[in-house]
Task: inverse folding
């Protein structure tokens, strides 16, 4: 499937995957994340069920302390 | 646009600022100087000595509530700005209640958990409301790493990378840059709202 991750094109040898699988695939290690598919929020407890498929625009934001 | 024209527009607008620390206090000052009509600020903390390396407070204000003290300081910057100060540790229900009438919301927390909380709350409970976050600004130097990313109505300013630590402290220059980027984005959005 061809998807967008954080506004960058990404091609993955899968037809679909969950948001959590995508996080693991991308090797994102941060504890605090905000995830969205096509602009719609995917809460933490929905990441194992929310499906990413071809053409989706996925946002995975790392929350970092400081301010 | 002349400054007079800019001021005429922003003076009719309201910006909410969640947190009155390094990001919030400096962002509020920039917005007040520009002449934003109303600022809604919220924080539960008091001013501490360690805050003075980057936050818009003075050495004689230690121990005072940040929200009310920021309101005082903003008055000296621009007495025409109406400031509504809330002394509260923000939770999702407060965010919706306190900021619902704001044209733009600025996220200015320090903890990653709180940043996640306000983003999830605004995306879910207040769809279409612009939210401008600050993520990654600790340490010094590395100017070119600081930027802005847009994800629909969510704007992220910062280097998206540097986390605060004992050997990577938050300091006035980089925190100030990000706070002013947030203010800059807020002004751009307020002007665009008027052009629509």
Result:
């Amino acid at each position: 499937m061809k998807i967008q991750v954080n506004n960058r094109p990404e091609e993955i040898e899968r037809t679909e995957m969950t948001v959590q699988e995508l996080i693991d695939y991308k090797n994102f290690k941060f504890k605090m994340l905000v995830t969205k598919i096509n602009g719609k929020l995917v809460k933490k407890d929905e990441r194992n069920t929310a499906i990413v498929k071809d053409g989706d625009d996925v946002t995975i934001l790392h929350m970092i302390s400081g301010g | 646009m002349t400054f007079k024209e800019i001021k005429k527009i922003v003076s009719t607008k309201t910006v909410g600022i969640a947190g009155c620390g390094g990001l919030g206090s400096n962002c509020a000052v920039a917005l007040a100087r520009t002449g934003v009509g109303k600022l809604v600020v919220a924080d539960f903390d008091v001013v501490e000595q360690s805050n003075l390396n980057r936050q818009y407070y003075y050495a004689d204000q230690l121990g005072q509530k940040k929200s009310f003290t920021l309101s005082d300081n903003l008055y000296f910057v621009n007495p025409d700005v109406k400031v509504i100060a809330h002394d509260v540790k923000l939770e999702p229900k407060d965010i919706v209640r306190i900021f619902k009438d704001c044209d733009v919301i600025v996220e200015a927390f320090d903890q990653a958990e709180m940043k996640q909380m306000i983003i999830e709350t605004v995306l879910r409970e207040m769809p279409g409301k612009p939210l401008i976050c600050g993520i990654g600004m600790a340490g010094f130097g590395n100017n070119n790493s600081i930027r802005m990313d847009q994800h629909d109505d969510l704007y992220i300013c910062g280097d998206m990378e540097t986390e605060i630590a004992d050997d990577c402290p938050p300091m006035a220059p980089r925190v100030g840059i990000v706070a002013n980027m947030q203010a800059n984005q807020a002004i751009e959005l307020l002007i665009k709202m008027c052009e629509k």
User: Anything to note?
Assistant: Chain A has one domain: 2-62. The helical segments of chain A are 19-25.
